[in-house]
Amino acid sequence: MPDYAFYTTQYLGDSIPGDEFYRLAKRAEEQLNIYKRIYTVTAPGVDAEAMAICAMADALYFYE
């Protein structure tokens, strides 16, 4: 799972506060794991899964 430093420096996210990130990233990671069990998921790059988790965490934060 990516950490908050990855979210802010690599993903360049700025909407999720640091104290909320881990909770949302955990939920996003669990959802990605569900997708990986159901579908064939291939990561096109080294950080692709971490980027996906950050994007999903951003969406979760937005809809909360």
Secondary-structure element order, N to C? HHH
Overall 3D geometry?
A: globular
Structural class from helices and strands?
mainly alpha
Major β-sheet profile: none
User: Count of DSSP helices?
Assistant: 3
Low-confidence stretches: none
User: Quick check: average pLDDT?
Assistant: 96
Number of strands: 0
Q: Name the beta content range.
A: under 5%
Helix content: 55-70%
Question: Ends: how far apart?
Answer: 21 Å
Any idea what the radius of gyration is?
Answer: 11 Å
Question: Secondary structure elements and their pairing?
Answer:
Layout: H1 4-9, H2 18-38, H3 48-63
Helix pairs in contact: 2-3
Report what the structure shows.
The relative contact order is 0.24. The protein has three helices and no strands. The protein has helices spanning 4-9, 18-38, 48-63. It is mainly α.
Tell me briefly what this model is.
The protein is mostly helical and 64 residues long. The protein has helices at residues 4-9, 18-38, 48-63.
List descriptors.
globular, 64 residues
